[in-house]
Specification:
Blueprint lengths: L1 H5 L11 H10 L1 H20 L12 H37 L1 H13 L3 H29 L2 H28 L5 H5 L1 H13 L4 H6 L3 H11 L8 H19 L16 H19 L2 H6 L1 H7 L6 H26 L1 H26 L9 H19 L2 H7 L6 H29 L2 H22 L12
Helix pairs in contact: 2-7, 3-6, 3-7, 3-9, 4-6, 4-9, 4-20, 5-6, 5-9, 6-7, 6-19, 6-20, 7-16, 11-12, 13-20, 13-21, 15-16, 16-17, 16-18, 17-18, 17-21, 20-21
């Protein structure tokens, strides 16, 4: 029974898939570390706004918005740098580079004497995050089989969410100056493991004309050994030849890219769908609320401890992302995006009404309601709008422009991250939490209608086809 399970092609422990799973686990160590940096901000910002601030003086709302939103600016920078260098130096070198700015974040946190230290640190953390959200999906799409690609790619957000929960817990229960020493274990171990066990993708090596190295990389990620049967080796060799011919047009030279490739019908459709997915991802306020979760609960009318509520939500995030890894390659992307966008719109609407009436009535007996609604909102957001974002970004564009178009899309997404992280606390302060939530709900509902009418299923799509 167990043997038959392992022999299924979509089983991650299938012999053919094991090195792909290993590579995914290793490169996602930096995702966990990045998530810690994101989650740590929520309880820490509340401490920084008090008279007991680790910086010596409490932060104002404008300073809080800049500490929060600097991550978005850094993410844009990370996207651009990754897009520029990934084709030149390869995925492995880019993966190694991402450990550097994240390490600098915690050095700055430890030695911070003013808010500028934290702003620069968050900017550097954003560079790592921007690299993660571009390099990881592209790299995994190039080394993984179609029947497990969605599962492996969605593990990126699962890992980030695990880190966010750890960040909530560490930020709540550990002293400010202890946390950097604990977290630095992550990027240091990540750097060593990637250096030892990760190889550049066969697609990148083919584009560079390194056909022998590309074949070795292909056999490594498909876990094909010399001792395997001749049938398995022949099958893998044929797959590699098909990849090589597709990428080189039979002449062993990389296929050249020209301007008109960016304006084909398939490309334009990809741009339109990517735009709506990015809008839904950011204007649903899912990521903004993760960063300002403690402040959101403090304004919601709930009497529960904001930091405790944040830890509960962090646990639900992990559950949602885990469910996505299980069902993404089973039910497909479209149904998850529809359930996610509809559910988030409804939850934001209900949460807005609760916080509105909490301003007029005593809701002490209903203090559990904001946590319950937000738990459902975060769960539904993570099964589709969050976890499927990077899967769809890679799958919707034609082969020739896939890497560059994905890079541009992620840059735009990161720009919206900066915008949302900057304006969200300002909107809560000037409009009030209910109006802010209702605005996000309306945008998300509009995106649901668009997905229902125009989003096409990409489950099982080969990365060698448009």
């Amino acid at each position: 029974m167990l043997k038959n399970l392992f022999e299924r092609s979509n089983c991650l422990l299938n012999q053919r898939n094991r090195h792909q799973l290993l590579a995914t686990v290793l490169i996602n160590i930096i995702c966990i570390s990045h998530g810690i940096g994101v989650g740590w901000v929520s309880p820490t910002l509340r401490k920084l706004q008090t008279l007991d601030s680790p910086l010596g003086v409490p932060l104002g709302v404008n300073e809080v918005s800049w500490v929060g939103s600097a991550l978005g600016l850094g993410s844009v920078t990370g996207n651009i740098l990754s897009g520029l260098f990934m084709h030149r130096i390869g995925g492995k070198m880019c993966l190694l580079f991402m450990a550097l700015p994240h390490t600098c974040l915690w050095v700055l946190v430890y030695f911070a004497q003013s808010v500028e230290f934290l702003i620069v640190g968050r900017f550097l953390a954003g560079i790592t995050g921007g690299g993660i959200y571009l390099i990881h999906p592209l790299f995994l799409s190039e080394i993984s089989d179609p029947n497990i690609r969605g599962t492996l790619a969605s593990m990126v957000m699962l890992s980030v969410n695990i880190g966010i929960l750890l960040g909530y817990i560490l930020g709540t229960h550990l002293a400010y100056h202890i946390i950097p020493f604990v977290v630095l274990i992550g990027p240091l171990s990540y750097f060593i493991l990637v250096l030892l066990f990760i190889r550049d993708s066969p697609m990148h090596l083919i584009r560079k004309g390194k056909l022998e190295a590309a074949k070795k990389s292909f056999m490594y990620y498909k876990n094909i050994k010399i001792s395997d049967s001749s049938i398995e080796q022949t099958r893998a060799a044929n797959e590699f030849d098909n990849m090589r011919l597709t990428l080189t047009k039979d002449d062993n030279m990389p296929d050249t890219l020209c301007l008109k490739d960016f304006f084909t019908r398939a490309a334009l459709k990809g741009y339109g769908m990517a735009a709506v997915i990015i809008i839904a991802n950011q204007f649903s306020a899912l990521f903004a609320m993760v960063n300002y979760m403690s402040d959101v609960f403090a304004q919601s009318g709930s009497k529960m401890d904001p930091n405790t509520s944040s830890i509960i939500i962090g646990s639900v995030q992990i559950l949602g992302a885990y469910v996505s890894t299980i069902v993404c390659d089973v039910f497909g992307r479209k149904i998850l995006m529809l359930i996610s966008s509809a559910g988030v719109a409804l939850c934001l609407t209900v949460f807005g009404f609760f916080t509105y009436y909490a301003g007029f009535y005593d809701m002490t007996e209903w203090s559990w309601v904001p946590v319950a609604i937000m738990s459902l909102d975060i769960f539904l957001g993570n099964i589709g709008l969050i976890s499927c974002l990077f899967v769809l970004m890679v799958e919707m564009f034609p082969l020739k422009i896939r890497a560059r178009a994905t890079s541009i899309a992620i840059v735009i997404c990161s720009s919206l991250v900066f915008l949302m992280l900057n304006i969200f606390p300002l909107c809560m302060a000037n409009w009030g939490l209910p109006a802010t939530l209702w605005s996000c709900a309306g945008i998300t509902a509009g995106c649901f209608i668009f997905f229902l009418l125009f989003l096409k299923e990409t489950k099982g799509k080969s990365m060698l086809e448009d």
